[in-house]
NADH-ubiquinone reductase complex 1 MLRQ subunit
Amino acid sequence: MAGGYRWVRPEIYPLFAAMGTALSICAFSLVRNAFTNPDVRINKADRTAGYLENFEEGEKYREHNLRKFLSEREPHIFDGITKVFTSSK
C-alpha cells in the first residue's frame, strides 16, 4: 500500500475471535431461552394463561442434550494430571 493506512491490523485478530465467540454464545443463549424456555411466552394468548404448572416441559428444558452428554463423563479437565496426584501408592 503506497501511503495508505491499513484498517485491520493482524494483532486485532485474537480480539475478533474472542468477541465473535462471546457474541455467538450470547446469541445462542438468547435464541434458546426465547424459543424453548417454558417460562417465556411471546404471544398474547399464552401470556394471559398465567402461571402454568408444566413441570414436564421444564424438566425437558433443563435436561438438554449437552447436559446429558456431560453428566455421563467424569468431571476431570486434565485426566493425566488428576490421576497422578490422586492415585494411591
